[in-house]
Design goal:
- The protein is α/β, with parallel strands linked by helices.
- The protein has helices at 15-24, 67-72, 80-88, 176-186, 195-210, 223-236, 254-264, 275-282, 288-307, 322-327, 345-348, 362-371, 376-379, 399-418, 471-484; strands at 4-9, 28-33, 44-49, 75-78, 92-105, 108-109, 124-135, 140-145, 153-156, 161-164, 214-219, 240-246, 269-273, 313-317, 352-354, 427-441, 444-457, 465-466, 488-493.
- Helix 5 (195-210) packs across helix 12, helix 6 crosses helix 12 (362-371) and helix 8 runs antiparallel to helix 9 (288-307).
- The longest helix is centred in the middle third of the chain and has 20 residues, at 288-307.
Amino acid sequence: MHEKIIILDFGSQTTQLIGRRIRELNTYCEIVPYNKFPEKDLAVKGVILSGSPYSVNDTNAFKTDLTDIRKKYPVLGICYGAQYLAYSSGGTVASAGLREYGRAHLTKLDDANPLFKEIQPGTQVWMSHGDTITLLPDSFRITASTDDVEAAGFKITDEPTWGVQFHPEVFHTRDGIKLLDNFLSICGCAKDWTPASFIESAVTELKKQLGEDKVILALSGGVDSSVTAVLLNKAIGKNLTCIFVDHGLLRKNEFEKVIKAYENMGLHVIGVNAREKFYSELAGVTDPEEKRKIIGKGFIDVFDEEAHKLKDIKWLGQGTIYPDVIESLSITGTVIKSHHNVGGLPEKMNLQLVEPLRLLFKDEVRRVGYELGMPEHLVSRHPFPGPGLGIRILGDITPEKVRVLQDADDIYISLLREWGLYDKVWQAGAILLPVRSVGVMGDERTYENAVVLRAVTSTDAMTADWAQLPCEFLAKVSGEIINKVKGVNRVVYDISSKPPATIEWE
């Protein structure tokens, strides 16, 4: 049983970032709704209260009784979490007049306080709040101040409870990681949660959970399903069967390459070429949502057909990861959306779900993959949408359009790797537009397709900036595509960020 930190989520956009920072310090943590503290969990070592979009004075602000938690565990309140500690103890929180947002410096610091151990006065912090604490309860003592915020940090006397009105989890707070590390030390955390320790405990738990039962897993070629497969294979070996469906919308030669890579890792994989089925069902369809539904249903049908050829299957493996789990519930406990990667299959086939990565963030999944000895090209792959090129071909889908886009995309991705740029972007791909433009090739007039290149930088795909790739690189890609891909005479680069645009076009 891993010791853990519980993060009570009051709705902040940076709650997941707090979790990732704690994990980076080799300490396991879980994010739960603000009013769902796991009272019977004996592994809890400390509690962090997140920020919130609300003011503590709002009638609809998220509030909960912290009395028992404060008696039992060390507590760190961040921004709203700090203000709520003061407010719920009889202090006063009021509008700051001017919103306190951006860089600030700690002008006064109680460096004898264990939370600020080895942190020096003058260190930069990041503020982001419209309210501020104007009156602390008698039992609260100020531990840090800035020029504009007297109670930038506090501790409750005779109680292991701290609060800071800045965000230690963000990059702009220079010693934020050190502050969080100090809090983990206060909690008595061993800080020994590593990819290797995760694998060891996960394999033990999977053996106990699955016994001699048989499991099927839908592989996509992506990092999540691939790491899931290798982890399950390590636990149950021959009792795992993987199914990889080629819907005809994968990248160029991807089906063959990925199947070979999986086999080299000792996985039992059934490869299904279902291209013609999908092309037939997608013929003439232009609406993006309809395309998604057809591809999703087609995948389930093919997977179900293959699965029924096997005997005594009791479990369906899925590559669900922690952001999926968090997003599946609002902080009020209401289901927002389902994250079943093959939605409907568990019920349809009367299978139980096994999701060994459901408590890991994406970067942790990659680290586990490396620890498992998986090949670089599988572990470091960019995210790729389930419908594949089906949502990167705008308009109707034909085998010829797939061929054009596969060739253009292959040149783009290959050159990103060749120029050492692939690992510097979060996601990249080519999009085929349903428009043609006039061009000149040799002495002849052409009227052919336009291809869009898309590349973004991001940490979690919730927001993304367009990647500022070198002009020389873009010129090289454009020339290669126009010269080598029959049917394309124009290449453009997408410089839209998310929001307001999305990463994918459909």
